[in-house]
Amino acid sequence: SVKSKTLPNFVAILGAILIAVSLAYPWWSLEIEIIGKTSIFPYIIRGPATQLLGYKKTAQMPLLTGIIIACVVLALLGSLLGKRLGRVALLVAGALSGLAAWRFYARALDIAGRYQMKSVNGHTIAKVGAFSPLHVAARLERGYYLNIAGGVVCLVAFLLHGFFRRSKPKPAPEGPVAPE
């Protein structure tokens, strides 16, 4: 019998790493004059604006974080699974990563709107609580882009999965072959 050896899908592993690392960085920031910069991660809000918002976590944050962790697990599993199951896992990881980015963007846009901003990237002068109009700046941060990059890499891994998971026959042993 000819034993076959398959490679893990290294592209999928890279996608998983990018998505996992995205959790270490803020996904969005909001900087309000005199109040300071607040960083928003998928799982917590850190900074002085938590006093204005009245919370450090939203109800959606545990779900969003769970989806992102599921993307990492699916990408890693997909890198090792056979052709069909591996491709499904990678497609789902890439799609969920995109879904997480889209929902986070929508939520950030909603918060930006409270400060009369029409975009998640930009700045304006806005009335903030009891303060006179203040300069407010917001921008998508490294974590957001790392997640999107990881999701795109998972989709590329999905397309290349057959290349990594094809059988590579071991060379036949040297020398005389016994008759059957």
In short:
The protein is of the alpha+beta class and 180 residues long. The chain is built from 5 helices and 7 strands; from the N terminus they run βαβββαααββαβ.
Tally of helical runs: 5
The side-by-side strand order for the widest beta sheet comes to: 4-3-2-6-5
> Termini, distance in Å?
13 Å
**What do the pLDDT scores average to?**
86
Low-confidence stretches: none
Could you tell me the radius of gyration in angstroms? 23 Å
Shape: elongated
Percentage of residues in DSSP E strands: 15-25%
Question: Structural class per helix/strand content?
Answer: alpha+beta
Query: Secondary-structure element order, as H and E?
Result: EHEEEHHHEEHE
What is the number of strand segments?
7
**Biggest β-sheet: count, sense, barrel?**
5 strands, antiparallel
